[in-house]
Amino acid sequence: MTPQPTVSPEQKKTLWFVITASSVGTLIEWYDFYIFGSLATILSEQFFPQSNPTAAFLATLATFAAGFIVRPFGAIVFGRLGDMVGRKYTFMITLLLMGGSTFAIGLIPGYDSIGMFAPALVLILRLLQGLALGGEYGGAATYVAEHAPVGKRGFYTSFIQTTATLGLFVSIGVILAVRSSVGGEAFSAWGWRIPFILSAVLVAVSVFIRLRMDESPLFKQIKAAGKISKNPIKESFTKPENLKLVLIALFGAAAGQGVVWYTGQFYAMTFIEKTCRVEFVQTRNIVAIALLIGTPLFVYFGWLSDKFGRKVIMMTGMLLAVLLFRPLYRQMYLLTDVTYKTEIPSEKKIVKDSHVNAEGVMMTSEKTIIVYDDGSTLSKTIVIPDGGAPGEPKEELELSGEPYWALMGLVLVQLVLVTMVYGPIAAFLVELFPTHIRYTSMSLPYHIGNGIFGGLTPFLATSLFENSKTASNPAGDPLAGLWYPIVVAAITFCIGMIFLKNKKKEQVVDSL
């Protein structure tokens, strides 16, 4: 058995600085990337015509997904740069590109001001965000892994794995804080811009921290030995032995991991808000609290993968997702289905209000509030602009008591599955490829799996749900959207079980 790796106090101090500096920057990039998805409902109203709200929302999700689709291209471009120039400088560039794009989205005028230029500009900036993130994650994961002892990479790289979920958590937290400060109407009108603009401050802090970082020791070693790849793209994807590893990494791990991650967090939020009609703030509170509770499990499963191997942890999480997604979402829907709740007629009330909106138009609203026996309330609001036609009724459900906590618990169960498939994957990918082409080789399957298979989940799942609506069933099948992540995760599980090796720390050999 290989002796256990030892780390001196000085090395450990350096390692924790590396983890902190890398994680802070990566968290900010995820914050920048995901704040768009966290505000999808409002952005659909700002940047797309409202003649068809459903089409506008789907167009927003498609724009959100576009950032994922280009992530593999960012992986190739910045992966090549990282394998030839260095890890540190490459993900400094990606941080600035991401921050600048996010800041700019906060400044774009809405559809009412510049028409189709608004969604076009948003799409361009969203593509730049995708390119930046395509280079960031592989660099950060590789950088941390190459500082960590070989036998403890699952534990140390798991801190990078927390940043995606924490970035989503921070984006939700900032949104709720700003909305609480300026009010719901002002937030929908202009306050939504603040979380985007705030990115400039966060990026400045991260750049300051990252300027103090040194290059990866393994990269220094291969550079001193003259073993830097002259063409990492060619070596990664044209050599049969390495291309085989790329395909196994993609279809045997990353694709399934991507759909489980985005179903358990992003589609869960979309499902609760759009399909279950739960109120905006309450939806984000439910998801945010579940994220906060579940995040430490990334580190736990990363640590566990050092002991029992990456494959067994990831494949177990994937199989459980295949088996549990439909029962979990069925229960989520039932908790919010008012046909199973008893209305209290004496508590029903109608509230009328008139106010001037941000554009100076007098708006009259009529809100009907229905109270149920479990304490939940359903509000149905119709807004009529002065001299105009009534808008579409807006229904929002506010849960109370047991249904509220039960819904949060169901999201938390999904978070457990997310941490099982995602916690060990950085160490798994890093150890799969040799050092001199590692950045390029690991980044592409990760970002295809997460960016395309995973990133398309909210859009495809929502589209499947909308297409399930028929004349005989106008409400549609609320579980229709789950077929996409279930099928992808099932296929990945089968391929992974056949082709992946369950290397434990004693079996890992780091090749240059």
TrEMBL record:
Q: Which residues form the Major facilitator superfamily (MFS) profile domain?
A: 18-504
Q: Which Pfam families match?
A: Sugar_tr
Give the record's membrane topology.
Answer: Multi-pass membrane protein
Question: Does the record's keyword annotation contain Membrane?
Answer: yes
Residue spans crossing the bilayer? 15-36, 56-77, 89-108, 114-134, 155-178, 190-211, 245-264, 284-305, 404-432, 444-462, 482-500
Localization (cell)? Cell membrane
Q: Mind telling me which GO cellular component terms the entry cites?
A: plasma membrane
- PANTHER family of this UniProt entry? MAJOR FACILITATOR SUPERFAMILY TRANSPORTER, SHIKIMATE TRANSPORTER
The protein in question is named MHS family MFS transporter
The scientific name of the source species is: Dawidia soli
